[in-house]
TrEMBL record, chain A:
It comes from Paractinoplanes aksuensis. It comes from the Bacteria. This is Acyl-protein synthetase. Pfam families: LuxE. Residues 3-344 form the Acyl-protein synthetase LuxE domain. InterPro entries: ANL_N_sf, LuxE.
Automatic annotation (TrEMBL), chain B:
This is Acyl carrier protein. It comes from the Bacteria. InterPro entries: ACP-like_sf, PP-bd_ACP. It comes from Paractinoplanes aksuensis. Residues 5-65 form the Carrier domain. Gene3D superfamilies: ACP-like.
Length: 346, 81
């Protein structure tokens, strides 16, 4: 099975340093606010991946950052994030849009293989009613639906579980591998409990799920508990992923044995001390910086998120490279300072 | 009906275009009817019409009518009959 999880950390850093340094120059030349930020930072060049200049992800809510002329803008993606109000704007040209779809495809095929599988979408079709403006949730579901066939929606238009549809699907396709996609809390609320109550056999399912753990943490469900409970209804092939609209096409995917997210060959993470910004050693939590070669039409190739995470190990897991977990969000107040500094510089 | 005509029909039906709409020059997302949602129905319609199972990469790469002809050709659909 072709995979995008192949490079050891050393090999990856060598490639990424070269590609991302070039990308940094590309954005410096083509995005004026970005050039001003680099000048204010005193950035010249990087000798390590960790040394590449990062932008706080929040900056995409404050500034129009793009490295393409207006007439080459093909798609503008927006996300309001979790705190509402401000909206991130991400500008894609045709090349960047096509590349992000291809790379997402390659990443997901690393666990699914090249064939599209019958697919359960743990969501409702109603959310796609307005075709012009999907929510981030709608866009996520649509993006993933490419990897499946014979799709069935697990929820009806009112958001109730359609048990008959699920039973029908499993009768027809449940004997062979099938794909399940949904947001983590929807899977928990609507698939796990319903499968348990109705004795549905999900043992041939491969679950890919995403979306913050916050709603589950409120119910005191940890990622470990989530996996354990799903295994009780036969669902043992489970892959969580972490990704954001500001680096669309790049997802960090949970390995087969669970508990860790892995970086595809074209991406990486650096965990930073929230006070000194220095890189944290393995095992020490900090802010997650996400790095990807995909953002070519906007300077989103090195982004400091507001999420806390920790690297568990390097080259010692299901796939090579760093393996890490997302621990939650940094309280809003603590992150504000750095973004304001950047706004002034820009 | 020739395979090419069947393909044109499948495009018109899936993308909700008029019966006489020209489709041979269509590009994904240049026509407002061919969005990601319609793409799903289109792929399903092509699979039904030509009894093929299209792989993920081909779904992703099917970015124009011409590309659909090429991809279906790989699956043994003959458009030169």
């Amino acid at each position: 099975m072709s995979s995008v999880f192949t490079l050891s950390q050393a090999a990856k850093e060598e490639i990424l340093l070269k590609e991302l340094s070039a990308l940094t120059e590309h954005h410096r030349e083509n995005c004026e606010p970005y050039a001003r930020i680099l000048a204010a930072n005193g950035y010249r060049n990087a000798t390590s991946v960790e040394g590449l200049p990062w932008l706080p992800v929040r900056l995409f809510k404050n500034l129009e950052l793009k490295s393409i002329p207006d007439d080459e803008v093909y798609k503008v993606l927006t996300s309001s994030g979790t705190t509402g109000g401000e909206v991130s704007k991400i500008y894609l040209d045709k090349a960047a849009a096509a590349e992000q779809t291809r790379k997402l495809g390659a990443t997901v095929q690393s666990v699914l293989g090249p064939k599209r599988l019958p697919m359960i979408l743990v969501d409702t079709k109603a959310m796609l009613k307005d075709r012009k403006s999907f929510s981030a949730r709608g866009a996520g579901v649509l993006g993933m639906s490419n990897f499946g066939r014979n799709h069935v929606w697990a929820l009806d238009n009112e958001g109730h579980v359609d048990v008959e549809a699920l039973k029908g699907f499993l009768e027809q396709y449940g004997k062979e591998p099938f794909l399940i996609f949904g947001f983590t809390y929807l899977v928990w609320l609507h698939l796990y409990e319903v499968a348990l109550d109705n004795g549905l056999d999900l043992s041939n399912g491969i679950l890919i799920h995403s979306g913050g753990w916050k709603k589950l943490v409120d119910q005191a469900v940890s990622p470990e508990e989530f996996r354990k409970r799903l295994a009780a209804v036969g669902l043992t092939q489970v892959h969580n992923y972490y990704g954001m609209i500001e680096q669309i096409g790049t997802i960090f995917l949970e390995g087969a044995s669970g508990g860790s997210l892995y970086c595809p060959d074209f991406a990486d993470v650096v965990i930073r001390d929230p006070e000194t910004w220095a890189e944290q050693p393995v095992g020490k939590p900090g802010l997650i910086e996400v790095i990807s070669t995909l953002p070519t039409s906007y300077p989103g190739h090195v982004l400091l998120t507001e999420d806390l995470g920790v690297v568990h190990g390097v080259d010692d897991g299901d796939w090579p490279g760093k393996r890490f977990s997302v621990l939650g969000r940094l309280p809003r107040a603590e992150a504000r300072g750095c973004s304001d500094t950047y706004r002034e510089a820009a | 009906m020739s395979n090419l005509q069947r393909l044109r029909e499948a495009f018109r039906t899936s993308l909700d275009l008029p019966a006489d709409a020209p489709v041979d020059d269509l590009q994904y997302q240049d026509n407002e009817k061919w969005d990601s949602l319609a793409h799903m129905s289109l792929v399903a319609a092509l699979e039904d019409e030509f009894s093929v199972m299209i792989d993920t990469d081909d779904v992703i790469n099917m970015s124009s009518f011409t590309e659909a002809v090429n991809i279906l050709g790989k699956y043994g659909v003959d458009f030169n009959e």
